[in-house]
Write a structure and sequence with these properties.
Strand content: under 5%
Helix content: over 70%
Largest sheet: none
Shape: elongated
Amino acid sequence: MRQKIVFIRIAVLMFVLLFAVTQAECNAQRNASRKAEKGLFGKTGNSKPANDKVRARGAAGKAMKEQEKKEAMRDREEEKAMEELRKRHISMQNEATRERMTNNQKKTEADYKSKKERQNKKKHKIYASQNEETRERMTNNQKKTQSDYKAKKQKQRKEQQKPGKRKKRKP
């Protein structure tokens, strides 16, 4: 009788160890794969990207808005300063150099414009090479995505205009 009790205890202990060890090994493998993912890609499969559209509320949100305004003002001032610097630099040059500089600017703008036109022609060629059904489907998809985008933007604006409204509880 005593031998049976000892045997049962040993068997139970073996089963517990067997299941505990396999569970620990599985966890170790899973953690190792997560570490490898993080090393390769900088994030694991479970992590979600940060939502940039979420805004801070209260004093923090106000401070962030002020900071954005200051940055925008600084950018505008820097752009004005650069424009003045360009004008000053051009005014220092002699007449022949000024003409050459303006011609170079015009030439660069024309090259840029022609490059854009070539790119647009390629797009139109692709579009023209499609059969009628495909073209129609493409335009419908484009219209659909544009209308979806507009509706989404309008919804976001409405939500931003109504901050802090909560649903009333029914008694």
